[in-house]
């Protein structure tokens, strides 16, 4: 029956849409596509993979909203190990002036390492110091004491505060 009413669609307000005053254009002078940008205290933080197609190398970049054409690589020599530990890192806003980075803890430095532990690191933006905020070995109750039996290995090359690696003691590595 042609007289049956067709389902109605919601109507949009007529153009032009005038939201342009609230948008800010950012320069694309980053070395790679930014990953998981986060806004904290008037600054944007983002991760960029500046490595090769064969090996990821993550760097943390920041810019202020007032100077959005000037991205700066936020790094310290001691942080090199931190970014090597994490596979597929993501940024999340923490409490106050804190930035969280979440990702899988690499078990080896092979081309495509597996990850059995999720690691959460917290960066204090005032002190520019990282600390471990938490981790999840993902073992649940099954195999408790085997799969989730981790130990710290000290004196790993690279040293520094984060020159420690966790290894699964069941497998001895």
From TrEMBL:
InterPro entries from the UniProt entry: Kelch_2 (IPR011498)
PANTHER family (alphabetical): SKP1-INTERACTING PARTNER 15 (PTHR47719:SF2)
Protein name: F-box family protein
The species this protein was found in: Linum tenue
Lineage per the UniProt record: Eukaryota, Viridiplantae, Streptophyta, Embryophyta, Tracheophyta
């Amino acid at each position: 029956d042609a007289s049956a009413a067709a389902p109605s669609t919601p109507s949009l307000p007529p153009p032009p849409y005038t939201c342009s005053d609230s948008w800010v254009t950012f320069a694309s002078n980053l070395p790679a596509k930014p990953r998981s940008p986060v806004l904290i205290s008037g600054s944007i933080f983002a991760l960029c993979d500046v490595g090769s197609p064969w090996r990821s190398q993550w760097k943390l970049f920041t810019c202020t909203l007032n100077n959005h054409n000037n991205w700066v690589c936020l790094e310290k020599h001691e942080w090199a190990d931190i970014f090597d530990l994490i596979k597929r890192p993501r940024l999340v806003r923490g409490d106050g002036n804190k930035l969280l980075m979440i990702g899988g803890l690499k078990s080896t430095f092979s081309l495509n390492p597996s990850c059995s532990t999720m690691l959460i690191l917290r960066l204090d933006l005032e002190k520019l110091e990282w600390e471990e905020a938490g981790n999840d070995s993902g073992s649940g109750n099954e195999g408790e004491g085997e799969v989730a039996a981790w130990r710290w290995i000290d004196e790993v090359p690279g040293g520094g505060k984060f020159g420690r690696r966790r290894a699964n003691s069941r497998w001895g590595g």
